[in-house]
Every structure is written in structure tokens, then in C-alpha cells.
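Hey team,

Filing this mostly as a record. A colleague (T.K.) asked me to run one chain through the structure pipeline before their review meeting, and I want the input and output archived in the tracker in case anyone asks later how it was produced. No errors, nothing strange. Just documentation.

Input sequence:
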Amino acid sequence: MGITIKEDIIQDSSMTGTWTDKIKHRSFLVSGIPTTGSNPTEMEYLALTATDSTSGFTIPALGQFHPVLTSYWVDQASAKPCGPNQFYVTIRYRLQSLPSTFLLEFHGGVRQITKYVDANGNPTQVNTPASGVATPRLFGVPSAYPISQTVITFLENVNPTNLNANYAGSVNSAAWLGAAAGTVRFDGVTGSTENLIIYKNKYSFSYDPAGWNELVVVPGVDGYPPPGVNPSTTGGTTSGGAQGTGWAWFQMPKWVDFNSALSNVTTQVGGQGSTVF
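Output structure:
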């Protein structure tokens, strides 16, 4: 005869709720669970995963959404015997309102940059003596720059995997949450979930008001940058002219508009008029 499922019976059906949490129960009568080769525990499992032999209806699984209340999802299921080869199956659907609040953590730190200077301490790649002949004399001077590390934590319906793959290590290309363009680096997001629906995610950022571009020194044969290199505008750039600086700021990290790329963070934090950086 096969398995039959009577859907949405009155017994144990209910709905309860608070301001932030709403619960809906659905009950099913499952008949025809086979006993051959099954112990009682296995029969309960078969009831919880049963499919009606005629209609093809299957008991809703964990994480599945309600067919009408589409924001409610299954977070619990139970089965109890009520007769030979019969079980009452109760499915609990839950609607958990995500809070609009967020948690901010602040950490201080420094990053070390090697700055290149000439023998006079000037930020240039060459030192020009009295003879007027440009002679490369580079000195790497380690310098520590303060940075602010910020972690933003909140609950959401976003799996962070793709955000890490696409944007971790990138820098904001436009002003964002109070920070000027080029000053905030996205260090990635870590998260956890119990049901693949609601995630507790932590977004980490490093803020450096000096920016995240890299200082690159390009020595040429004659002490000047080779053709095609765009150095600092200070000083000349060609042999025979004024002393060339021979260094340039290069946009090393990928630049991304966080307002759209990290729109979930933008909305959660910026939507409340908050300035983070």
C-alpha cells in the first residue's frame, strides 16, 4: 500500500510569537511506515523523511521554507508513534527577525613601510653632488605608521564566502562610512551559522589615513626613472634636466566601491547614519 501522509492536521498545529521571534507548527499523520528490518528509532527517522507514495509530498526538511509563510523556515522536527506503523510528525517553522544593531570592535596597530631617501634625507632616489652628476645612493628607512583595525559584527542572511573571494584585500575607491577613498582595506569576513540561513558575520577592516598605495623606487641607468614610468611631479624626470625624484606611488591593491560591493555592511551601519572611520 505504501506510505500515506495526511497534511496539516489540527493536532499540535499552533502559532506563537514575540517581538523578534515567531513560531509556526504544522502536523502530519504518517502511515504505512515499514517495520521489516527496522527498529523503533529507524522508524521515527523514516517518518521524518517520508514521502507519500501517491501524491509525492515529502515531509519538510530542516531549512526548508513554509509554502505560504515564505519567510518562515524549518528549524525543528519531531516524530512520535500513534499506532501501528503510524507517527505524528510535527514540524516547527521559525521567523527570526534580524536585529538592526551591530557590534563594533576597535584595535590599534602599526604597519611598517620602508621609505627610500637620498644621502641628504630627501625622499628621492638619487643624490646630486657638487659636480652635478646624479649618482644613485638609496637608503631604506623603516618607518612605522599607525593604523586602526575595525571589526563590524551583525546577524544577516548572507553567506560570506563570495565576499572573501571577490573583495578581501581590496581598498575603497570612494568615500565610505566617514573614510576618504583609498584609506580603508577590507581584510575579510569570518562567520558562523547553525542552519545555513542566519549567519553571524564579522567584517574586518584596516584604516590608514595615509592610504594603501605603495611607494615604489625605480632606479634608471643614469639615476632617473626609465621612460614610461610616472614618478612624483617633484623634480625633473629626464636625464640632463633637473634632479629627478625617481619614485612613484602605485595603486597596488584592487580598488572597489564598498558602497555597492559591501552593500550589506553599508546598509547595516551606514543606514543608521553612523560614521565608523
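Quick notes for T.K.: Residues 62 and 74 are 5 Å apart (CA to CA). The two ends are 67 Å apart (CA to CA).
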